[in-house]
Amino acid sequence: AKWITLIPAGSEISLYIHINHYLDKPVLYKKFKLKAHQKFSYEFPQGFSAHWAQLKSDKNCEATAWFVYE
Q1: Which one, of 17, 5, 8, lies nearest residue 50 by Cα?
Q2: The whole model's pTM is what?
Q3: Confidence class of residue 58 from pLDDT cuts 50, 70 and 90?
Q4: Could you identify which of 19, 25, 53, 57 might form a hypothetical disulfide with 13, taking C-beta atoms 3.0 to 4.6 angstroms apart as the criterion?
Q5: Rounded CA gap, 50 and 9, in Å?
Q6: Nearest CA to 66 among 5, 2, 1?
Q7: Is the alpha carbon torsion for 34, 41, 47, 70 positive or negative?
């Protein structure tokens, strides 16, 4: 299983997950609306693979993200 858990602090944000395969440019994978201090989890589909993941938000914020690959 592969998943990400996110907890934004402060205010509601839109969070974007960009992924890279090998040395390609980052591409938008998913966008989520997250409420402040609310834990959110997303399970990646079976077979998901990426070499890099970047998290970006629509405004300045503090957030915690955990990527879990089992």
Answers
A1: 17
A2: 0.81
A3: very high
A4: 57
A5: 27
A6: 5
A7: positive
Model pLDDT for residues 4-54, shown as the tens digit of each residue: 999 888 889 999 999 998 777 899 999 999 988 899 999 999 988 888 899
Q: Distance between CA atoms of 14 and 33, rounded to whole angstroms? A: 4
**Does residue 58 come out as left (phi exceeding 0), alpha (psi in the -120 to 50 range) or beta?**
alpha
Burial 15-44 (b: 16+ CB within 10 A, else e): bbbbbeeeeeebeeeeeeebeeeeeeeeeb
How many residues belong to the chain?
A: 70
